Amino acid sequence: MAVDRRGFLKFVAGVSAGVMVTPIPWKLLDDASIWTQNWPWIPSNVDGATSYVSTVSKLCPSCVGMKVRLVGDRPVRILPDENHPLSKGGISPLAVAEAQMLYSPARVKRPLKRAADGAYVAISWEEADALLAEKLGAAKGSIACVSGDETGSINEVLSSLAVQAGSGNFYLMPTEAQPAAKALAAMGGKGQLGYDIENSDYVLAIGANVLETWGPVISTRAAYKAARPHGEDPAVQFVFAGPVQNSTAAGADQWVPIKAGTEGVFALGIAHLLIKAGATADAADFSAFKSLAEAYTPAKVAEITGTNADQLKAVAAALLKARTPLVVCGSDFGQGTGAGTVMAGIAVNMLLGGLNRKGGLKLLPVAEPVVSSAMSRAEMMDKDFVSYMSRINAGKEKAPKAMVFYEANPAYALPQATKMSEVLGQVSFKVTFTTFLDETAMLCDLVLPVPMGLERLDDVATPYGYGQALYCLARPVAPMPASVKPAGDYIVALAGKLGCSLGVSSWEEVLQAKAKAMDADWDSLMDGNVFTSDATVSANLSFAADLLAKSVNVKAQEGNFAVAPVFKLGIGTAKTAIPPYNNKLIRRWELQGNELYVAMNGATARKLGVMMHDKIVISNKSGSINARVNIFEGIMNDTITVLMGLGHTAFDQFSKGKGENVMQLLTVGFEAGTGLSVWNMAGVTISKA
Amino acid sequence: MQAKEFKVKWGMAIDIDKCTGCGACMVACQAENNLSPIEDASNKIKVMNWLVVYELSNKKPFPEHDVAYLPRPCQQCGTPPCVSVCPVIATDKNEEGGIVSQIYPRCIGCRYCMAACPYHARYFNWLDPVWPEGMEKALTPDVSVRPRGVVEKCSFCHHRFMMAKDKAIVEGRDPEALADGEYVTSCTEACPNGAIVFGDLNNPDHQVYELARSKYASRLLERLHADTQVYYISRREWVRRQLDNYLDNEKVKG
Amino acid sequence: MEKNYSLPADHDLFPEGAQRCSLMKFTVWMGLVGVVAVWGLYAAYKVLSTGLGVTALDDYFGFGLWITFDLAVIALGAGAFFTGLLRYILNIDPLKNIINLTVIVGFICYSGAMLILVLDVGQPVRAWFGYWHANVHSMLTEVIFCITCYLIVLIIEYVPLILEQKQLNRIPLLHHIAHNLHVMMPLFAGVGAFLSTFHQGSLGGMYGVLFARPYVFRDGFFVWPWTFFLFVISAVGSGPVFTVLIATLMEKMTGKKLVSWDIKSLMGKIAGSMLFVYLIFKFMDTYGWIAHILPNAGLTYDQNFYGNIYGQWLLWAELGVCGVLPCIILLVPSLRNNPALFYSAAILDCIGVTINRYVFTVQALAMPVMPFDTWETYAPNWAEWGSSALVVAYGAIVLSLSYRYLPVFPQEKKLNATKA
């Protein structure tokens, strides 16, 4: 049958009309709302049974306790844990991103070897094992180990390895714990410093960024929370002294601006006023200390620290009035401070009668090592990695033949980072146990992937600053990726292969022994419970006045301006870089695109003749960084603040290439008296770009 | 305009004096509500964030300077400027505890609601959400993922409300009378400083009931009569003064 | 009939008695416009395939160039409904000489606006929700209904013009349809006027109801905010002269007289009168805004302006240079009848209404309402300019084809006869 035009048009019209009376077009239209919601390229939710597991974060330096929500076997949320003393219903902005970080694009998924052309190639574990045995075997007697985990028993295994197969060079990455330990030792104390913030009614934080990065900050913030009912006058006063109106200053009742690096002087100024008001301490060298403090009159302290004498007097008066005052001395960016600063803080606490008192400064017991030949905590704390690197650089010490890094990223995180990377270049074989492909991994010959804290069995023993002895376990709550191996067992076996006798045969055995040494019950720990103890070690401290006098002296700085790094936990650490969700926490005028912004107050900007958004170059003999200007009035005169955690050259798209690394500007110096490496004062010159 | 009133009215009392701006709430919110990460988050007015922590300044030079942080979730207005303008009823203020809903499959993406909201609580999916490979495994099953082209906003973790109600019903309790703390948002839960208190503004047994009546409590832009369900508390007058627009001769309350 | 090779190849399609340029020249012109259209189509493709992330819009400026463009062309397209109203309902007969052009311009403006809206909504596939899930409280719902309905009216008004094309009109059925539609035209003009008035108003109402945006909020008269009326009157105060400007532009490009001066002058007088009415209300409104709405929101007048980009100059340009000035020129016969002044006034008038739509769309969003919030600025990017240019190119194509093949200008033959 031939179809003419008319017939065809009739057919089309008929079909059109026919289709319109069927539900098809209407159903399709209605479905549009559904399929425009569920494009195939948009991931969909996968349901499953929800369960919760309590554990502790090995990722966040606050060692925050956390409750992991699992859907099926997938961790989806990190929640606060009401029952954990290091959480008390709070979570850190870093740990809360931990479930997502399991899938970080920067994760190392299989062992990598650096080929001759510098490229990294994936290899099997067998190849890795062979290479490692060969290289470390050849380097025996000259192996150094570096750990980025301050609280774990892995350090005992690593230090035993360093002692038995190396030259005794085991180092922790620098934090605030080392100067504190050094200070305590110098004053004749034993154990570990603990600050009972929870029971204090007046907390003076000198430098220590207690509400953001110092110590077990989430437990500190739990104490802060408890003391401050909404809209009511707080039951506990928090006072912060430091160069920047940082997070702690924002939460504190009072901000006392003092120049970076003058924390010790400020504390001695307080001591001066306390002694004048009749405070005394039962220490042999009190009179020596008294004559030292004599010199730190309010006028002199005001001159050195840049604060005003009246504010200093007001703080001293408030301390005297308080029932359980507590002084915490530290660094506002979590590292680089001297032992003198901490000693001055301990001295003030002694004058306030705060030693081993409720709401005061406590000396906490530390368990003996459970691994044969392992260093004691005191020995570990005595080792100064930056100083070691400086000695190698100066040719005063030979570079080791091999270096083993465990969750440490010195190539990024040490002061004068570029210089440190160069020094690392002198080490002929480097291997890193790491979760993420960080800057240090990019320098290593062998990169060995280890599970994240959520995927492994690990432990936390009394984090520095916490007011009680504490021990708890991180339990594996998520399945481990196929080609990742837990470092604990691997290193125990490796040490055996290198001929070390650890006295333990497995990682779990190490932890069980440790639990026993801490007096904790293993089964209870494995149930997610936390062991704490109110025990303290007796304190018969001296003021170490001579040492204090030397170490607290403020050196003249380079240039006319000071750099104050700003450390925010949410932006991540050298180990984690910026977690995928957390780059949203970087404030607008801290980073734009890849361009760094640094902040200064209006007076400083006028002095420099710069305005908001102007380009500047900040430099000193260590390095130089380019940035734009942001004006923020919560900064001391002649001080520039730079956000830490930027300027990564490794990791993933969320971190790499964003901004600049402030560590380039931090110059290492050595504290008079203690010889400790310090970098809490960076002088710079600034020019318009 | 008369605010809609319901038996249960979920609200917040945020103590600005207690917020130190750490951002735990913002990250917790993203993870809870399945927001996607973004490579460059520096263009703050084009980056999705249901909850934003604003920085407030007393605008005085050093050393008189003071700083404060203000977390801003959706204010869940009693008379929402956004709801009446939506041409397709993709957003509504209904009996669900006074939470302003957002129905993603209904939204046509006209963004009129965003123009209406002075709090910038509403965000548009300018592009399809992208998760790094594998990270979609960390999505929660509670909140659906949104495609590009729709507006979204803070829902006071509405799914948690539904779960709490379900639990109450199973246990034979009145779902309209949940105990204080039985349902809280993810940001409330995460905040280590306890700066956010969440509860039923109509229930005298809930802490927010009293807090909302504190002499230090006021709401954002109160005089625009959006009648919001988020109260801000500060003992500092300069902070309270920045919660609304004041003419020079006007005094701030509290 | 013997073929006349001096005539363009497509001369059989031309309107009766009209002369047109060569097909080659026309093709080159269409090619030039086509290049712009292709650029715009690429922009549109990027927007639809990748998402609105390719534009410079953001969470502060959810509305930007596109909405400004839409509002402006809809206001300027108001010549269609208003002239239709005057011609068919109020029987102002001379307007028949320009009514076709107003319909085509109206059609282009409205269909172009719809095209832009397809790009501007995040989920174009769901655009029909506006009908299916309509929220009767939303001004935008009214806009969606009225604009789509009015576009249908404009199509109905446009169809007889197409059917009157010389060759099509020879088909009896089409001839009769065209004739009958003409007879019914007053009805459609009436419907169109009703629909158009409401949606012009609703577009203004969209802003006026934003009670949390003190820059645009206008307390209402009954259910309508003042902006409802202001938008209607400002549209009719500028639409007619926009049509005249288009006609004049076409005259310049074709070298022919298309509309007589008296018609243009009449359109100018109509627009000027409406502009006068508008300005009275607009000044009252501005006073009310400064004296009541702003203080009630705790704001001062100065807080509504920022730097040069959102400076007070915009307000004075809108009200003075592009408001009062053209109004005077259009209303004073001696000034109006000076072509240079007349066209300048027409252009200023159109700029004025565009500024008005721009500040209501963009400046309103740029301004912080929360005291700790900041002013933000917005500049459209290539994707938005490209797709807007697409609409302009589309308009040029429709107008060019209509002019070449359809009997748009009744006066054309007469006005150009003397010349020939």
Structural summary, described in words:
The complex is a heterotrimer of chains A (689), B (254) and C (420). Chain A is α/β, with parallel strands linked by helices and 689 residues long. In chain A, 30% of the residues lie in helices and 20% in strands. In chain A, the strands form 7 sheets. Chain A has a 7-stranded mixed sheet with strand order 5-4-16-15-14-6-7, covered by helices on one side. A 7-stranded mixed sheet of chain A has the order 21-22-24-23-28-20-25. In chain A, a hairpin with a 7-residue loop joins β17 and β18. Chain B is of the alpha+beta class and 254 residues long. Chain B is 17% helix and 17% strand. Chain B contains 6 helices and 10 strands. Chain B has a 4-stranded mixed sheet with strand order 8-1-10-9. Chain B has a two-stranded antiparallel sheet with strand order 2-3. Chain B has a two-stranded antiparallel ribbon with strand order 4-5. Chain C has a two-stranded antiparallel ribbon with strand order 1-2. With 420 residues, chain C is an all-alpha fold. In chain C, α10 packs antiparallel against α11. The model of chain C has no long low-confidence stretch (mean pLDDT 92). In chain C, β1 and β2 form a beta hairpin. The two termini of chain C are 23 Å apart. Chain C is globular, with a radius of gyration of 22 Å. Chains in contact: A-B, A-C, B-C.
Which keywords apply here?
heterotrimer, A: 689 residues, alpha/beta, 22 helices, 30% helix, 20% strand, B: 254 residues, alpha+beta, two-stranded antiparallel sheet, 6 helices, 17% strand
Structural class of chain B: alpha+beta
Counted by DSSP, the helix tally of chain B is 6
Describe the largest sheet of chain C. Answer: 2 strands, antiparallel
Order of strands across the widest beta sheet of chain C? 1-2
The largest sheet of chain B, given as strand count, sense and whether it forms a barrel, is: 4 strands, mixed
Q: Would you count the extended β strands of chain B for me? A: 10
- Proportion in β-strands of chain B: 15-25%
Oligomer: heterotrimer
Number of strands of chain C: 2
Pair with the most extensive interface? A-B, 84 and 78 residues
Shape of chain C: globular
Structural class of chain C: mainly alpha
Return Rg of chain B in Å: 18 Å
Terminal-residue CA separation of chain B = 26 Å
